[in-house]
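pls read this protein:
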Amino acid sequence: MQVIVDSSPIISLASVNQLHLLEKLYQKVIIPKAVYDEIYFKEHSNIISSAIDGEKYIEVKNVKNIEAENLFSTALHKGEVEVMILYRELQADLCIIDDYLARKYAQPLKIKVTGTIGILMASKEKGFIKE
Protein backbone atom coordinates (compact mmCIF):
# COMPACT_ATOMS: atom_id res chain seq x y z
CA MET A 1 0.00 0.00 0.00
CA GLN A 2 1.37 3.41 -0.98
CA VAL A 3 0.47 6.23 1.40
CA ILE A 4 1.29 9.91 0.88
CA VAL A 5 1.31 12.13 3.99
CA ASP A 6 0.99 15.90 4.41
CA SER A 7 2.84 17.83 7.12
CA SER A 8 -0.07 18.45 9.52
CA PRO A 9 -0.67 14.77 10.38
CA ILE A 10 3.08 14.24 10.88
CA ILE A 11 3.34 17.30 13.12
CA SER A 12 0.22 16.32 15.08
CA LEU A 13 1.28 12.71 15.62
CA ALA A 14 4.87 13.61 16.46
CA SER A 15 3.67 16.24 18.95
CA VAL A 16 1.92 13.54 20.99
CA ASN A 17 4.65 10.90 20.48
CA GLN A 18 2.47 8.78 18.21
CA LEU A 19 4.30 9.13 14.88
CA HIS A 20 5.14 5.41 15.03
CA LEU A 21 1.46 4.68 14.30
CA LEU A 22 2.11 5.47 10.63
CA GLU A 23 4.68 2.68 10.48
CA LYS A 24 2.45 0.25 12.37
CA LEU A 25 -0.48 0.90 10.04
CA TYR A 26 1.29 1.24 6.69
CA GLN A 27 4.89 -0.04 7.10
CA LYS A 28 6.10 2.82 4.85
CA VAL A 29 4.84 6.31 4.04
CA ILE A 30 5.93 8.84 1.45
CA ILE A 31 6.18 12.59 1.90
CA PRO A 32 6.74 15.03 -0.95
CA LYS A 33 9.79 17.31 -0.83
CA ALA A 34 7.56 20.32 -0.07
CA VAL A 35 6.21 18.55 3.03
CA TYR A 36 9.77 17.70 4.10
CA ASP A 37 10.70 21.36 3.71
CA GLU A 38 7.66 22.47 5.72
CA ILE A 39 8.58 20.15 8.57
CA TYR A 40 12.26 21.05 8.60
CA PHE A 41 12.08 24.77 8.03
CA LYS A 42 9.05 25.84 10.03
CA GLU A 43 9.44 27.72 13.26
CA HIS A 44 9.70 25.35 16.28
CA SER A 45 10.30 22.37 14.00
CA ASN A 46 13.22 20.93 15.99
CA ILE A 47 11.04 18.49 17.93
CA ILE A 48 9.18 17.36 14.83
CA SER A 49 12.21 17.10 12.53
CA SER A 50 14.13 15.15 15.15
CA ALA A 51 11.15 12.79 15.44
CA ILE A 52 11.39 11.85 11.75
CA ASP A 53 15.19 11.90 11.41
CA GLY A 54 16.45 8.43 10.69
CA GLU A 55 12.99 6.90 10.36
CA LYS A 56 13.41 4.45 7.49
CA TYR A 57 9.66 4.08 6.98
CA ILE A 58 9.38 7.73 5.86
CA GLU A 59 10.54 8.27 2.29
CA VAL A 60 10.90 11.70 0.67
CA LYS A 61 10.06 11.95 -3.05
CA ASN A 62 10.02 14.78 -5.55
CA VAL A 63 7.04 15.27 -7.82
CA LYS A 64 7.91 14.78 -11.48
CA ASN A 65 5.20 17.00 -12.96
CA ILE A 66 6.36 20.44 -11.81
CA GLU A 67 3.98 22.08 -14.30
CA ALA A 68 1.01 20.54 -12.48
CA GLU A 69 1.89 22.62 -9.41
CA ASN A 70 1.44 25.79 -11.46
CA LEU A 71 -1.92 24.60 -12.81
CA PHE A 72 -3.01 23.94 -9.24
CA SER A 73 -3.11 27.66 -8.44
CA THR A 74 -5.36 27.47 -5.42
CA ALA A 75 -5.47 28.48 -1.80
CA LEU A 76 -3.66 25.26 -0.92
CA HIS A 77 -0.14 25.13 0.44
CA LYS A 78 2.61 23.73 -1.75
CA GLY A 79 2.85 20.61 0.44
CA GLU A 80 -0.84 19.79 0.01
CA VAL A 81 -0.60 20.28 -3.75
CA GLU A 82 2.46 18.01 -3.95
CA VAL A 83 0.71 15.36 -1.85
CA MET A 84 -2.11 15.19 -4.40
CA ILE A 85 0.22 15.29 -7.42
CA LEU A 86 2.41 12.53 -5.94
CA TYR A 87 -0.71 10.49 -5.19
CA ARG A 88 -1.57 10.57 -8.89
CA GLU A 89 2.00 10.03 -10.13
CA LEU A 90 2.58 6.99 -7.92
CA GLN A 91 -1.00 5.72 -8.22
CA ALA A 92 -1.01 5.67 -4.43
CA ASP A 93 -3.73 4.15 -2.31
CA LEU A 94 -4.25 6.86 0.30
CA CYS A 95 -3.46 10.47 1.19
CA ILE A 96 -3.31 11.60 4.79
CA ILE A 97 -4.36 15.25 4.87
CA ASP A 98 -6.04 17.23 7.65
CA ASP A 99 -6.73 20.52 5.89
CA TYR A 100 -10.44 20.83 5.07
CA LEU A 101 -9.93 22.81 1.85
CA ALA A 102 -7.33 20.35 0.58
CA ARG A 103 -9.73 17.50 1.28
CA LYS A 104 -12.43 19.34 -0.72
CA TYR A 105 -10.04 19.64 -3.69
CA ALA A 106 -9.12 15.95 -3.39
CA GLN A 107 -12.74 14.77 -3.54
CA PRO A 108 -13.51 15.50 -7.23
CA LEU A 109 -10.07 14.14 -8.15
CA LYS A 110 -11.14 10.82 -6.60
CA ILE A 111 -8.23 10.88 -4.16
CA LYS A 112 -8.82 8.64 -1.17
CA VAL A 113 -8.17 10.71 1.96
CA THR A 114 -7.99 10.24 5.69
CA GLY A 115 -6.61 12.48 8.40
CA THR A 116 -5.01 12.34 11.82
CA ILE A 117 -8.30 11.37 13.45
CA GLY A 118 -8.67 8.53 10.93
CA ILE A 119 -5.16 7.34 11.82
CA LEU A 120 -6.01 7.36 15.52
CA MET A 121 -9.30 5.52 14.93
CA ALA A 122 -7.63 2.85 12.78
CA SER A 123 -4.87 2.49 15.38
CA LYS A 124 -7.44 1.98 18.12
CA GLU A 125 -9.33 -0.60 16.04
CA LYS A 126 -6.11 -2.55 15.51
CA GLY A 127 -5.18 -2.32 19.20
CA PHE A 128 -2.12 -0.10 18.69
CA ILE A 129 -3.53 2.45 21.15
CA LYS A 130 -6.01 2.04 23.96
CA GLU A 131 -7.97 5.28 23.68
